[in-house]
Design brief:
This is SF3 helicase domain-containing protein. With 466 residues, this protein is an alpha/beta fold. The chain is built from 18 helices and 21 strands. The termini are far apart.
């Protein structure tokens, strides 16, 4: 009987063997054949492959998992579960082995293996004050040199551009000089300080001036230099609000806090602001988390059309404030003279110039202050008068045709200032400031004697007609 079977040729057998061998070679290490001949997923091996493709770590005392950016040279925060689930899904779908259970189990395995149970380092303990990362290396503030990226440094802030250590940011400096004159020196020192993860100068910066003078544009430019992930945006009045206990959490591990157009209202709680600028320990509290102590290095940068009134008692309080006036009105002519796209292109070289300016300030122990800055600050401190505080804390409005004599009120004001350790204004300056708060300065007859009074102003535990 003749057989219908055909004996395969040597060539066909070779192709089959080759195909089989290729399939074996292409099969991922995490796929295996069980005793029943079925292809299964080895979850620990799949997790291992994912971990080999990216450096990931979870520290017990860190607020978030970390992943090392090979391009940026720093450890960035990320969602380890979502990242792992995405990678596992891609690999499993390609192999035709996806299931929700396998994805979840793989993510769990990665999380467990990345968790450093015995390592109780906090971000504050791994922070390197004098080193900052750019795409082309790590700048060392001590040596002034650029060194290669190194994951062992555990740097947490990246800047997505190459630091350009040669050349000059001509267009940027001309733009700033036209905006603020000699105050550009301080602004460059301040910007450079943002890259330094410490608080060597206990200062807070406010860009001041009427609208349409470039304040917001400058703040946006500083934001571009630092990167959105490295800044927070909390208003000055939010820090001073005793009822907002979560405000300080926003500056956690940030290089700067940048906020435009702060409120001009009176702020009576400045202890947190002093702590944020003073290299002091502050209490950080996240929602549903236990509060903890932390030293902030975020430089506080604000802008204001009208400077606020603050409760400041000493020279130590007032010296923290650096007021930078922007007196130039932005006209069409000004806009045509300054190409902001060219200014943006100069960020890599301008960042380096700012860093070097800051290093010089660090060496001498203080930042610059232009004559105009000192002038505007002096005017502000005089306006930021303790008179307003005195009236709010010691006086009230009675609503009747009554009021203390101006002589008596002024004597109480002098006592208040002496107790608070602050400068006493002359009576001539004191009177119009009281009037500004809504009290009429009127001359009335009492006991046959005509006397000047503040209508409606009463003081606790005193007869309003004394």
């Amino acid at each position: 009987m003749e057989s219908n079977s055909t004996v395969p040729s040597n060539e066909a057998v070779g192709e089959l063997v080759s195909g089989f061998t290729t399939t074996i070679k292409e099969r991922p290490q995490w796929l295996y054949i069980d005793v029943n001949g079925k292809e299964k997923v080895n979850i620990p091996e799949l997790a291992k492959e994912i971990m080999q493709e990216a450096r990931m770590v979870v520290y017990p005392n860190f607020p978030y998992p970390l992943q090392y950016s090979e391009k940026g040279g720093y450890w960035k925060s990320f969602d380890i579960d979502k990242y792992t689930e995405k990678k596992a899904t891609e690999k499993l779908q390609q192999a035709g082995k996806w299931s929700n259970r396998t994805v979840k189990d793989t993510a769990y395995n990665v999380g467990i293996n990345c968790y450093q149970a015995g390592n109780h380092l906090t971000p504050a303990e791994v922070m390197k004050t004098d080193k900052v990362v750019f795409n082309n290396g790590v700048y060392d503030f001590t040596t002034g040199q650029l060194m290669p990226h190194d994951p062992e440094l555990m740097l947490l802030h990246g800047h997505d551009y190459n630091l350009k250590m040669q050349g000059e940011a001509v267009k940027t400096k001309q733009w700033l000089a036209d905006l603020m004159g000699e105050s550009i020196t301080y602004i460059m020192e301040m910007i450079g300080s943002c890259f330094y993860h410490g608080m060597p100068f206990q200062e807070l910066t406010i860009l001041s001036g009427d609208g349409s003078n470039g304040k917001s544009t400058l703040l946006n430019h500083i934001t571009s230099m630092l990167g959105m992930t490295n800044i927070s945006s909390v208003a000055l009045e939010q820090f001073a609000d005793k009822n907002n206990r979560f405000a300080t959490s926003q500056v956690y591990l940030k290089e700067a806090n940048i906020f435009a157009d702060i409120d001009s209202k009176y702020l009576d709680k400045v202890s947190v602001i002093k702590a944020l600028t003073g290299d002091d320990t502050i209490l950080i509290e996240f929602k549903n988390k236990n509060p903890f102590s932390y030293k902030s290095f975020a430089k506080l940068i604000f802008s204001a059309n009208e400077l606020p009134s603050l409760k400041m008692n000493t020279h130590g309080d007032t010296r923290r404030f650096k007021i930078v006036p922007l007196d130039t009105k932005i006209t069409q002519e000004f806009i045509s003279q300054h190409d902001l796209k060219a200014v943006e292109r100069e960020i890599p070289s301008f960042a380096y110039e700012c860093i070097e300016m800051f290093r010089k300030a660090l060496e001498r122990g203080y930042t610059s202050e232009s004559k105009r800055m000192a002038e505007v600050k002096g005017e502000w401190l005089e306006r930021n008068s303790p008179v307003e505080r005195f009236l709010k804390e010691e006086c009230s409005f009675d609503g009747k045709d009554a009021g203390h004599s101006a002589t008596y009120v002024y004597s109480r004001y002098r006592t208040y200032c002496m107790n608070e350790g602050i400068k006493v204004l002359s009576k001539q300056k004191f009177i119009p400031l009281v009037e500004k708060q809504g009290y009429s300065y009127v001359r009335t007859m009492k006991n046959g004697k005509r006397e000047w009074r503040f209508k409606g102003l009463v003081m606790e535990e005193n007869d309003p007609y004394s």
